[in-house]
C-alpha cells in the first residue's frame, strides 16, 4: 500500500473515513483496486474519471447482470463513468458495515431502470430478465410472475412498487444483507 | 401550459390531502411515525415529476419537524432524519444543483439543535447522519464542510464544566477505541483472500461455512492461550513428562508416552508450586479458574453470536416469509459472485426456482386423499421409529464394545476398536439418513432438511453420551479415569481428521475423475454435513479441554488443516452448487446446535466437578470432589459455615421447581405479548392498504373536480369558440358526472 499512500493527504483520508464505512487502510486498499483497473490514468491523477467499460472490468461487476446499472447509480455524472470517489462510495455501500436501509435505497435505484422513482411493470420485467440470464421466461409466465409479485408487495394496489413498499420487503428479508454485498 | 397548470393543481391537492390524511386516521399515525411517512410517499408518488418531488421533499421536511418536535428518543430522530432524504432524487445533477442540494440538506440539519452543538458527541452524531445519507460522496463532503463551518460560527467560546469535559473525553476515547479495533480487525481479518475467492466462485452460502470455521478457530486460539499460559507452562517448569520411550503409535492413540505427560489431567500436580522462594503458584486454584474463565468466555461469545443471528433472521424479519416472489426476485442474486461460471449457474438456478414457484402457485396441490395421508403418516412414524431403534442399537453396541475393550490397554487394535466403530457410525449414518428422508415425502424441503439435521445430530449425541456415561459410571474404578476419557476423545478427534477431512478429500477426488463424474455427477460441497462435522468436533473439544489443556493446540492444528484441505477440495474438485443455499436461515440452526453442544459440555463438566469422585489423580487429587477444593481454597469457606448451610437450603428440588414455574410464566407472557404485537402489525398493515386506497380515490376525485372548476372558469371568461376545448370540456363533464354525486 506504500505507493497508494503518497497520493492522499492525512486529512483527505480522515475525510473518507468519516464519510464512508471504511477505515483509512481500507480506503487505500480500495484505491489500489481502483488503480488496478487503469494503472496509467489513475497513476497520473488519483481521482481520474474512468469510463464505464473500465469499471465493469472489476470482477464482481463484470459478472453482475446489473453491472451497468450499478455504475450509473453511483456515477456522479449519471452516465456510468466513475471517479475514485464514486467507486469508493459504491464499495462503501456494498461493504458489510453499511446499514440495511442504505443498501435498500441503492438497490431500489439500481432496479429503477427508467428513473421514475417507482418500480413499474417495465422495471420488474427487466429485473427478472436480467436475473434469469440466457434463459427467458415465456410471456405468460412473466405476466403471471409480475402479477403474483405485485399481489404480494404492492400494498396500495397502484400497479407499481414505491420505495416504501420495496423497503418493506427488504426489511423483512433475512437474505438481503447477506447477499447484497461485495467484498473489497 | 394546460398540463403544467393541472399538475400544480394536483400539487395543491396533495398538500390539502396531506392535511386531511393527517387529520383523519388518528389511530394509525399516532402508532408509528414511519408508517405515517411511507403513506405520504404513496400519495405523493402519484405523478412523477420533479416539481412533485420538490413538494414531497418539503412535505417530508414538514413531517420531520413535526415528528422531531416531540423529541421522543434519539432513535426516532435518527430514523426521521434518514427518512427525510430517502425519496429525494434529482435526475440530472449539475454542479450548481449539487451545491443547491447540499445547502438544502445542510439547512435541514442546522435546524436540529442536538446535531449542531460544538462538542464531540454531536459531531459523532452528525457524521453518522451524513454517512447514512444515500447521496454521493462529493455531496456528503460538501454538506460536511458546510456544517462544520456553521457549527464553528455558531459556537460561542465559553469554558465547559469539568464533568462535561470528562464526559466528552471519555466518549471520544471510546469512539476512537472503536475505530482502532475496527482497523485492527479489518487488517487482521484472517483468511480474507481465500474466503473472498471462495465466495466469488461458489457464492455466499459456502463462504458461511468457512467463516464459521474461522470463528471457531479464533475462539479456540483464545482458549488455547489461556490454558497453555496459566496451566501448562507452570507445570512444564516443574516437570513435563515421565521418562517413557516414545513410539509413533502414541501419536495416533494418545497413550504410552503421552499418558504421563503434561498432555493430560492426571499429570498435573495438586499442590503449590514454588517457582522461586517468593513466587508461589497454587496449581489447583489456577487450573480451576483458568478453565472456568475459558468456558465462560466461549459461552458469552457464543451467546452473543446466537442471539444476534436469531435476532437478524427471525425477530427482525418475522412475517417476511410470505414475500416469496419478492424475495426471489430482489434478494436472490449474490452480488459477491465474481466468476462467469458461478454467475451463469446462479442465473439458471434463479430461472428454475421461479419456474417451480410459478408451477406450485398454478397447481395448488390437489387435496390428498385420506388414505394417502394415513399412508404417509404411517411411513413417517415407521421411519422415525426405525431410526430411533438404530440410535438405541448404536448406543448398546458402543456400550458393549466399551466394556469389552477397556481391560486391554497394550493391544493397539483393541484400543482402536471403539474409536473406529464410533467414527464409522458418525460418518456412515448421515448419508443414510438424508437418503431415507426422501421416502417420508415431506411437503417442504426445509422441514425435511431440519429433520435430517436433527437426526444426524441426535446420532452423534447418543454416541457421545454413551461414551461419557460409561466413563462416569463404569470407568471410575479404573484409577485415573480423567486421563483415560481424554485419551478416548483424543483418538476420536484424530480418527475424524483422517476420515472426514482426508477421506472425504479422496472421495471427492475420485468422484471428479471422468468415469465417476459421468455416472454420479460432479462432486458438490455439502455445507450441512461439513458444518455438522465442525460442530461435532467443537463439542468434543469442549468436553475434553478440561481434561487436557494442550488439546486446544491439537484442535487448532486440526481446524487449520480442515480449512486448507477443504479449500483445496472445493477449488480443485467441486462444482458450484446448482441449488443455492439459504445461509441466513440455516445459520441460526447451526449456531443453536453449537450452543447446545456448549451447554451440554458445561453441564457435564459441572456435574463432574460437583458429583464425581476426583481423589485419585490430577490437580484435585486428595479431595473427594473438585468443587470442595474450589470452595475451600478460592472462597475460603468451610463445610460448616453459614454460607454453605444457606446454599444447602436453597439447593433443594422445591427451589428448582419454583424457578422452572417462574420461567414458564415469563415465557408464556412474552409469547402472548409477541402474538399481540403480531396482530397489531397485521391490523396496521391492513389499515395502510385501506388508507392508501382511500387516498388514491380521493386524489382522483380531487383532480377531477379541480379540472372541472378550471374549465368552468375558462368557460366563463372566454367564448366557446375553440372547438377542441369544447370537446374536451364535454368529455370531462361526462366523465365527471358520477363524481358529482359523491
Automatic annotation (TrEMBL), chain A:
Sample GO molecular function, one term: calcium ion binding
Annotated transmembrane regions: none
PROSITE patterns in alphabetical order: EF_HAND_1, EF_HAND_2
Pfam family, one: EF-hand_7
Keyword presence, DNA repair: no
All copies of domain EF-hand, residue ranges: 99-134, 141-176
Keyword Metal-binding included in the entry's annotation: yes
Keywords recorded for this protein, A-Z: Calcium, Magnesium, Metal-binding, Repeat
PANTHER family, A to Z: CALCIUM AND INTEGRIN BINDING FAMILY MEMBER 1 (PTHR45791:SF1), CALCIUM AND INTEGRIN BINDING FAMILY MEMBER 2 (PTHR45791)
Name the UniProt record assigns to this protein: Calcium and integrin-binding protein 1-like
Automatic annotation (TrEMBL), chain B:
Keywords tagged on the record: Membrane, Transmembrane, Transmembrane helix
Protein's UniProt keywords contain Transmembrane helix: yes
Keyword Membrane tagged: yes
Cell compartment(s), UniProt: Membrane
Membrane topology: Multi-pass membrane protein
TMC domain: residues covered: 480-584
A Pfam family it matches: TMC
Major place of residence: membrane
InterPro entries associated with the record: TMC, TMC_dom
Gene Ontology annotations for the cellular component aspect, listed alphabetically: plasma membrane
Coiled coil start-end: none
Regions crossing the membrane: 212-237, 249-267, 287-307, 377-401, 413-435, 447-472, 492-510, 589-610, 650-670
GO molecular function: mechanosensitive monoatomic ion channel activity
Family: Belongs to the TMC family.
Protein name: Transmembrane channel-like protein 3
Organism: Ceratosolen solmsi marchali
Gene that specifies this protein: LOC105365673
Amino acid at each position: 500500500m506504500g505507493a497508494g499512500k503518497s497520493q492522499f493527504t492525512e486529512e483527505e483520508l480522515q475525510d473518507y473515513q468519516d464519510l464512508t464505512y471504511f477505515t483509512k487502510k481500507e480506503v487505500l486498499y480500495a484505491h489500489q483496486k481502483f488503480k488496478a483497473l487503469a494503472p496509467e490514468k489513475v497513476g497520473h491523477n488519483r481521482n481520474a474519471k474512468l469510463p464505464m467499460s473500465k469499471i465493469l472490468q472489476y470482477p464482481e461487476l463484470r459478472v453482475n447482470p446489473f453491472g451497468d446499472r450499478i455504475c450509473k447509480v453511483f456515477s456522479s455524472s449519471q452516465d456510468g463513468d466513475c471517479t475514485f470517489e464514486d467507486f469508493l462510495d459504491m464499495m462503501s455501500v456494498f461493504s458489510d458495515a453499511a446499514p440495511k436501509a442504505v443498501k435498500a435505497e441503492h438497490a431500489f435505484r439500481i432496479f429503477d431502470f427508467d428513473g421514475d422513482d417507482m418500480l413499474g411493470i417495465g422495471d420488474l420485467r427487466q429485473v427478472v430478465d436480467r436475473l434469469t440470464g440466457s434463459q427467458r421466461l415465456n410471456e405468460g409466465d412473466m405476466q403471471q410472475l409480475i402479477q403474483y409479485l405485485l399481489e404480494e408487495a404492492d400494498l396500495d394496489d397502484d400497479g407499481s412498487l414505491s420505495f416504501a413498499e420495496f423497503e418493506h420487503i427488504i426489511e423483512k428479508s433475512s437474505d438481503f444483507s447477506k447477499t447484497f454485498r461485495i467484498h473489497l | 401550459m394546460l398540463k403544467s397548470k393541472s399538475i400544480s393543481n394536483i400539487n395543491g391537492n396533495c398538500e390539502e390531502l396531506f392535511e386531511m390524511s393527517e387529520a383523519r386516521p388518528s389511530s394509525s399515525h399516532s402508532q408509528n411515525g414511519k408508517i405515517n411517512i411511507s403513506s405520504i410517499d404513496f400519495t405523493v408518488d402519484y405523478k412523477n415529476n420533479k416539481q412533485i418531488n420538490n413538494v414531497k421533499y418539503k412535505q417530508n421536511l414538514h413531517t420531520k419537524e413535526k415528528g422531531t418536535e416531540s423529541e421522543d428518543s434519539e432513535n426516532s430522530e435518527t430514523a426521521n432524519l434518514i427518512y427525510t432524504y430517502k425519496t429525494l432524487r434529482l435526475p440530472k445533477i449539475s454542479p450548481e444543483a449539487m451545491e443547491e442540494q447540499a445547502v438544502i440538506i445542510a439547512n435541514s440539519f442546522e435546524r436540529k439543535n442536538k446535531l449542531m452543538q460544538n462538542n464531540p458527541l454531536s459531531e459523532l452524531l452528525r457524521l453518522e447522519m451524513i454517512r447514512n445519507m444515500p447521496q454521493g460522496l462529493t455531496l456528503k463532503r460538501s454538506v460536511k464542510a458546510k456544517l462544520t463551518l456553521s457549527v464553528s460560527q455558531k459556537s460561542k467560546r465559553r469554558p465547559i464544566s469539568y464533568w462535561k469535559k470528562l464526559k466528552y473525553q471519555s466518549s471520544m476515547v471510546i469512539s476512537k477505541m472503536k475505530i482502532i479495533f475496527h482497523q485492527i480487525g479489518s487488517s487482521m481479518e484472517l483468511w480474507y483472500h481465500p474466503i473472498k475467492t471462495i465466495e466469488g466462485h461458489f457464492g455466499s452460502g459456502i463462504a458461511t461455512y468457512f467463516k464459521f470455521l474461522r470463528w471457531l478457530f479464533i475462539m479456540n486460539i483464545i482458549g488455547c492461550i489461556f490454558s497453555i499460559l496459566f496451566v501448562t507452562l507452570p507445570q512444564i517448569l516443574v516437570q513435563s513428562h515421565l521418562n517413557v520411550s516414545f513410539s509413533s503409535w502414541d501419536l495416533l492413540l494418545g497413550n504410552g508416552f503421552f499418558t504421563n505427560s503434561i498432555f493430560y489431567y492426571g499429570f498435573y500436580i495438586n499442590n503449590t508450586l514454588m517457582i522461586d522462594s517468593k513466587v508461589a503458584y497454587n496449581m489447583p486454584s489456577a487450573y480451576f479458574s483458568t478453565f472456568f474463565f475459558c468456558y465462560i468466555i466461549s459461552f458469552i461469545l457464543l451467546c452473543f453470536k446466537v442471539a444476534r443471528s436469531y435476532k437478524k433472521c427471525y425477530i427482525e424479519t418475522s412475517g417476511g416469509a410470505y414475500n416469496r416472489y419478492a424475495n426471489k426476485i430482489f434478494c436472490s442474486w449474490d452480488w459477491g459472485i465474481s466468476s462467469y461460471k458461478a454467475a451463469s449457474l446462479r442465473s439458471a438456478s434463479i430461472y428454475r426456482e421461479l419456474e417451480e414457484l410459478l408451477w406450485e402457485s398454478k397447481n395448488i396441490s390437489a387435496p390428498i386423499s385420506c388414505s394417502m395421508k394415513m399412508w404417509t403418516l404411517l411411513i413417517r412414524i415407521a421411519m422415525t421409529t426405525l431410526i430411533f431403534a438404530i440410535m438405541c442399537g448404536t448406543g448398546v453396541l458402543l456400550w458393549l464394545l466399551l466394556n469389552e475393550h477397556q481391560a486391554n490397554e497394550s493391544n493397539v487394535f483393541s484400543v482402536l476398536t471403539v474409536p473406529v466403530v464410533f467414527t464409522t457410525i458418525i460418518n456412515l449414518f448421515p448419508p443414510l439418513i438424508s437418503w431415507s428422508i426422501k421416502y417420508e415425502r415431506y411437503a417442504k424441503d426445509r422441514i425435511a432438511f431440519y429433520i435430517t439435521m436433527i437426526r444426524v445430530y441426535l446420532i452423534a449425541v447418543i454416541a457421545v453420551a454413551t461414551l461419557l456415561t460409561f466413563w462416569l459410571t463404569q470407568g471410575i474404578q479404573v484409577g485415573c479415569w480423567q486421563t483415560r476419557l481424554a485419551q478416548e476423545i483424543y483418538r476420536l478427534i484424530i480418527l475424524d481428521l483422517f476420515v472426514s477431512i482426508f477421506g472425504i478429500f479422496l472421495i471427492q477426488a475420485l468422484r471428479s475423475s471422468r468415469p465417476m463424474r459421468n455416472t454420479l455427477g460432479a462432486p458438490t460441497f455439502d455445507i450441512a454435513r461439513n458444518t455438522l462435522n465442525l460442530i461435532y468436533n467443537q463439542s468434543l473439544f469442549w468436553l475434553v479441554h478440561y481434561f487436557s489443556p494442550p488439546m486446544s493446540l491439537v484442535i487448532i492444528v486440526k481446524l487449520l488443516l480442515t480449512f486448507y484441505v477443504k479449500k483445496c477440495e472445493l477449488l480443485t474438485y467441486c462444482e458450484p452448487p446448482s441449488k443455492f443455499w439459504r445461509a441466513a436461515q440455516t445459520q441460526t440452526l447451526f449456531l443453536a446446535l453449537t450452543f447446545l453442544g456448549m451447554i451440554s459440555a458445561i453441564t457435564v463438566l459441572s456435574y463432574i466437578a460437583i458429583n464425581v469422585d476426583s481423589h485419585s489423580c490430577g490437580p484435585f487429587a486428595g479431595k473427594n470432589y473438585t468443587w470442595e477444593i474450589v470452595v475451600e481454597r478460592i472462597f475460603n469457606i468451610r463445610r460448616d459455615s453459614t454460607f454453605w448451610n444457606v446454599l444447602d437450603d436453597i439447593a433443594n428440588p422445591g427451589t428448582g421447581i419454583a424457578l422452572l414455574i417462574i420461567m414458564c410464566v415469563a415465557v408464556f407472557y412474552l409469547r402472548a405479548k409477541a402474538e399481540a404485537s403480531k396482530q397489531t402489525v397485521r391490523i396496521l398493515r391492513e389499515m395502510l392498504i385501506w388508507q392508501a386506497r382511500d387516498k388514491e380515490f380521493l386524489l382522483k376525485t380531487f383532480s377531477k373536480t379541480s379540472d372541472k372548476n378550471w374549465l368552468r372558469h375558462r368557460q366563463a371568461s372566454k367564448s366557446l369558440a375553440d372547438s377542441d376545448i369544447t370537446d374536451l370540456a364535454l368529455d370531462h363533464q361526462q366523465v365527471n358526472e358520477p363524481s358529482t354525486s359523491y
